[in-house]
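call fold target=Ig-like domain-containing protein
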Amino acid sequence: MIPYFGLLLCWLAHPLQGLEIFDPEEVEYIRSNATATAGGSVVLDCGSTMPTIFIWGFTKSGTDNNVAVAYNYGQGPKLPSQSGSVGRLQVPVNTSALVIEELQSDAEGMYTCQALYDTDTGARITFYFTRLDVEDD
């Protein structure tokens, strides 16, 4: 889990100047599972509150390769071009949810949303891990 935390902090260093993380031991980890049908759609949640900054990563089943598929560090959501192999991705306006439409079987794997919340008492970080299983239609 710590490598993810380091990745988040390194990647976000510039937009977070002045943001102080008081106690990284209070990182929260939330795990869930989802099942969807190939060709259909699925919504993966990244908390019930909009984070200040978030990064969605994907690790395909059977691999250790984690790639960013969506992120928002204060200037609106971005979808890197390599994310299309899992289906058509979108992040609805004013949310941190990841929507995958036209779901491909290659979308099966672990999705991780790294969410940073800027609060009055300092930064709070939550990792949302969602295991997605894709069934044939």
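return ok
The first strand starts at residue 28 and ends at 37. Residues 60 and 89 are 15 Å apart (CA to CA).
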